[in-house]
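STRUCTURE:
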């Protein structure tokens, strides 16, 4: 499952989240870089030319999504993700207490 942080925190905030998920023994990885960022298509100004791709590559990450994932694994992942997003400042902890599904990620409607 791929998710995108709402706030434009850049690579560093996403990477902090991924490091903390790893410490909780939860697999995750950053999204792939867009084609203009890779050889042989590299463009020096790809971030300016493709701002949406730049935003997604800087804020996107993938969570576990195995067909073998149990309900217990899913709940554990969601609980750790919510907790970590609050701790690193991507989610208002008071609002998160009211809505356990407010995880500071873009929804399909946004």
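SEQUENCE:
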């Amino acid at each position: 499952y791929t998710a995108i942080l709402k706030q434009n925190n850049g690579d560093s905030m996403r990477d902090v989240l991924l490091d903390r998920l790893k410490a909780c023994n939860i697999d995750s990885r950053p999204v792939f870089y867009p084609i203009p960022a890779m050889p042989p298509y590299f463009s020096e100004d790809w971030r300016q030319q493709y701002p949406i791709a730049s935003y997604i590559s800087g804020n996107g990450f993938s969570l576990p999504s195995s067909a073998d994932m149990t309900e217990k694994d899913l709940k554990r992942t969601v609980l750790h993700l919510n907790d970590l997003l609050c701790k690193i400042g991507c989610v208002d902890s008071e609002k998160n207490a009211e809505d356990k599904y407010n995880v500071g990620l873009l929804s399909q409607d946004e």
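REMARK: Residues 106-110 have pLDDT under 50 and may be disordered.
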